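In practice, a research group might receive sequence data for several interacting partners and want a quick structural hypothesis before committing to experiments. The following worked case mirrors that situation: the sequences arrive first, and a predicted assembly follows.
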Amino acid sequence: MSTLRALAAAQAVAAGVAQPVATVRHLHLATRPLVLVPLALAGEANAPLAAMVGSAPGQGRLLVVPQPRNRDQRFAFAAELAAVALPYFDGYRAGTETITVDRGREVRQRYLDAPQVLVPNPAGVTFLRLLGRATRFRRVDGDYPVPPQVPLLGRWLTFLTERAERPGSSMLVAMTQALTLHWATGQSAVEDLHLPALLGWIAPPGRMSGAEAAALAEDPAVCPPAGPATDPEFDNRLLAPAIEAYAAAGDDEAARAEAYAELERLLRDQLTPTWELMWRGVGLLRALPPGARVAGRWEGDRDAFTAHAEHVDGGGAPQPRRDGAVAAAARLHRLERAAASYAVQRAYDDPLVMAEHRLTGEAFVGEVVLADPARVDDSGKRPVLRPRIQLVTTDPVLVPVGAALSSPARSGQKARVVFVTPVADGKTEVVLELSGGMGRGLTATPGSVPEVGERLCYTTLSEAYVPGGTFPTVEETPWTHGGPPTPVSAVDMPDPDPAPDEEWA
Amino acid sequence: MTSSEQRLATIRGDTPPRRHNARTIAALTGNPGCTRRAVLDGAGVDKPLLAERIGFPARFGQSRFAITRGNVFEAQVKADGGAELLRLVAERLGVPVPAAASWTDLGGRDDVTGREERSAALLTAALTGPAPTGTETPQADPAGGTDAAALFDHPLLGLDVAGRRVYLEPDLVAARLGGRFHVVEVKSFAVIDGQADPAKLAAAAVQSAVYVLALRELLAAGGHDPRLVSHEVVLVCPADFTNRPVAHLIDVRKQLLVVRRQLDRMDQLDVLLTGVPADFTADPADDATALVDSLARVRANYAPDCLASCELAYFCRHEAGGQTGTLGRPVREALGGIDDIDEVLALAGGDHPADPERAEAAALLRTAARLRADALGTPA
Ligand code: SF4
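A structural hypothesis for the assembly, expressed as tokens:
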């Protein structure tokens, strides 16, 4: 928790409304995101109960599982969800662009856009992960055949939930996370996981304060939970009798239709408020201008989407139940790198995020008071252009002499710290020596050296590319990590025949 | 009755003391720094009722579906005199699966003290005896004696909480295999690809630790070595998305320490009671306004974690409004540990701290406020 964000939370309490902690939007937002609000039956291992899904506010489709413990109905749910989701995913495979990789040595195709799925909260992401796990190994033949779109959906859900672990990815987003990335409420992080309360703080209705709106939203009788868990009161008082009525109807067509309609009505009532809140969240996020580096990160998502689509098209195997040792280590390394680069990119894109680094002394904003744009260093073998500038700042400066800094406004240019001198009134003078981004000769191209009077931010955070670590191949898995795994087919594929009592997996 | 016991009885008033179970005892470890909770729980005050009376009802409802599923799974696992359970536990412990085991149901008919005695007698007999008497399966290991495998369902265990005997009626099985007891807990949450919901797993571990503790005390009281109860408990859960049970071992040594420490603290309630006004009462039958006034006089220690573990959470949260602690500990720490939100904002706005020890925090907050305003383009 940064002090800046904590201060915003304190200000939210005093103001009675959430306070911004970002000035730009740090995630990609699709024109037509697929909003998905799932509900699960309490006590079961991820048994779907209902869902509302669709890519426009007025087009929410309600899916209902009248007997959530029934295996066939679970797969029927997965098939229905697939019937909405798969065409949505496919819709993003219309156009491609050609990109070069590996310094132009290779050429690839990439889809021009990619799907985006929004769920209410992190538990919604977990629900999809488990739904993916429960369906991606299903067989379309044998004793328990399922429709072919079921395992396909499972693979896509697994892909999305794995992607969601990557910091900065926007393919599968929990609305609560997206909102708290941009606003600080006057309540705690646990309470922020409740979407209605969170939105109560961000956009309290009428004359209510955020705290009042959040308190109201906590009452499940007023505002149903945003799932996947349902309100136990609802389960006991309304849902259980309705499910029993459906079961009791048996083969009586009329009674069954009536019971089904009642279940639909109950579940629609539970889902609709969250569905509407999801679109309100979308609206709030859309009102923020996107950060400059959001599109670049979305390209990474498009790359991943393209690669997964090609993998599936090419008859590739479903994702394994668990990564092997080498794959797990490599994946962890990738996620750490993504997290580091995401943190830097957000700071570069957003002065309010950069302010957190200014507070800790890793960045400062100062005014240029002196500039020597023509300075040439001729102490080396050949003379080089090394302009110097002096800035004055009121920020705490903790960068050491010799440190390499860069500025978000001039990210192609390096600045080495030459002097740091505290002066009166809590101010600090910093002298920087610049290199790069000034043309080829010994004279700087006009405008490439900061001028006196400019206000600039310099930071130790660097966007420079850091080469990734290297990992042994799977065949070279060290014995300390279990040695090379048994042939992929045996590990990746689950027991081909599920035990007769298996209801789901 | 000691004077403390008398005090606690007065605090509780005429409403009968609330029964503890492993969940409520496990919850005691949730906020050990809270005097209010220690005193109320020590006195056995019916906190759910109390919370409702003062207008802040707790929301710890349980869904019928979850209860049914739990019962069905438990019955399935314990079927056939626990034959399947025995196999699972033995395999998990790495001991040969015994051909048979005695199955003793300690649940049931008698009154509480009678049952506790019966549980104690049969469980300790199992350590010394030949096969325990009164069992329903006579074909115990013919070798008899202490090595015979034995399963005890629904033992009634006692624990002293704040000087009061509290009875636990776990749905658990105490399995004696290879001369040691293991607590076996049957839980219906799924373990998928070897991973369970971390919160549920953590809760199960603390609850199991409570049982281990109670079982150890029972053995110690009978003059036996308490270490005959293993610190490794066996958790039986459905595997993946099926009803197929799998057993897992959890080491609860850490949880044992935590529970022990909190119970010791509750034992010294007289120390805590010195900080509580002499006329403090919390009888849910009292008038609501009087109750609120009364509660306000006993120090609480609200944290957002309370929402998941204490029935008074909504009341305490309301009372703690305006305190940085309501925003969570990380926020409070990031604000220099200052408790009061108004003070935080005053310091951030440039006020000089009354306390010189706050000078550093004040400077940090001032800079933070300036940087925030600068980045937002608003006047500081
Ligand atoms: S909710 Fe209140 S009484 Fe309960 S532990 Fe928290 S602070 Fe203590």
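Before designing any experiment, note the following. The radius of gyration of chain B is 25 Å. Chain B touches chain A through 56 residues (CB under 8 Å).
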